[in-house]
Write the structure tokens for this entry.
Amino acid sequence: MIMDDFLIRALIAGLGVAVVAGPLGCFVVWRRMAYFGAALAHSALFGVALGLLLEISPTLAIVVVCIAVALILVSMQGQRQLAGDTLLGILAHAMLALGLVVTALVDTVRVDLMAYLFGDILAVSDIDLYWIFGGGVLALVALAVIWRPLLAMTVHEELAAVEGVPVARTRLMFMVIIAIVIAVAMKVVGILLIVSLLIIPAAAARPFARTPEAMAILAIVAGCISVVLGLGSSMTWDIPAGPAIVLAAAVLFLVGGLLRKTSRSYEQ
């Protein structure tokens, strides 16, 4: 059976995103930053609208907007008036609403909101692949640079600061990496589902990993399997590819939990 070009591009794009999202998602899970990721993901729609309005690449606009929102969140973390999750909730929904309003005002271009909200991996172009792999390589290199200090911060941030870890700079770099990955991965599963591709494979890998590095590798494997199963399901049953990938990841998480529970019962 010969695969069509669009399906090959979709598979390559999905696997590329899974390789980047796996290690990054481990830190999102460890540091309990899923809601932060959701805030950045929701702001991506405003980036799309801004790109269309200014007639520039939507992906480039998304990267700029997500990095700007990440910087705003970093600068506002020191305030004491509102809890962090409240601040994230306000910013996330405000940016999503702003994106929808600006998109409605762009009357010169027809915008497929469903594709942006839930992904359109089967429509991935060669240019999208360049963005995914270019941004992905940049994100992985940056993550490798801050891996040790970020790991020390994740274990105990105050102790890491005492030991000389540049906490503020490392935190900022990590948030920028998340912003870049969300921007380049949006085409695969969409704005509303991108965080799930970060956290579900990492969560599925966690029970089976004994070291952080092992968890990162297992998260990559789980993400890649989810992409293959999701695309296969989409082709077989004619269902949306992005949500199918996320559902496949969720099934892997449930199966992994059951296997882990069964193995523990046998050990006892």
